[in-house]
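From the pipeline queue, job 12 of 40. The input is one protein chain; the requested action is below.

Action: predict structure.
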Amino acid sequence: MEKLRIVLCDANVREMEYYADICRGICAINNIPAELKLYSNSHDLLFDLKDDAFSALVSIVVIDPAGDFAGIPAAMRGDGYDGLIFYLSHSTVPEQYHQAFDADAYNYAQKGGDYNSLLRFQMTFKESLQAARKLERQYIAVSCAGEYRQIEIRDIYYFEASMNHMVCVWYTDGKFLFRSTISELEARLKGRSFVRVQRSFLVALGGICRLSFEQVTLTNGKSIPVGRSNYAALKDALDKWSQI
């Protein structure tokens, strides 16, 4: 399972660290690997968001929109961020709720140390994790030399190993070369209907239209060699996939 990237934004560092610990605990209890990054000012956040590869990998933004962060959610949406935004604030001002709606926020929770406030945050954050995982399963984000692509899983035909720990992904809109290995991708895409057909190739089961002992033929017309040691596992995976 790939890590979820979660960003917390709050000018109140003590409160941000408190909620970050709660988020880490919820992720651990639910066996969801996560990487958290904390921001106490909008300048640092905006600097990192200039890197398209960074913003593409952020699954959830938990933000207190007061003060320095007031315009950040709307700005992120305007720049094309399509991940989850979770409002977390002491404020009960209706304008804050309107801003959350305008920014297409996934949810809005009130800060507070009382039992009900903490319980609501825990429940809604857990729901946001599940929503983020469903969204993540639809795409794979890859980058190289400052350029990134967010590619729909269903559009991918196969991955092909290249030189110097580089991999080329072939999909409906073309191809893209990025830094990785076939083994890393096989682990990253486990459970998403991809199978190793040969040492240098990882193929989408849904893209296979014909299988022989020597090769697979894909729906885009490409033929890929099948390794002798991979044939049995490939045929079994293809049989199971066709019955789904």
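Job complete. The first helix runs from residue 13 to 29.
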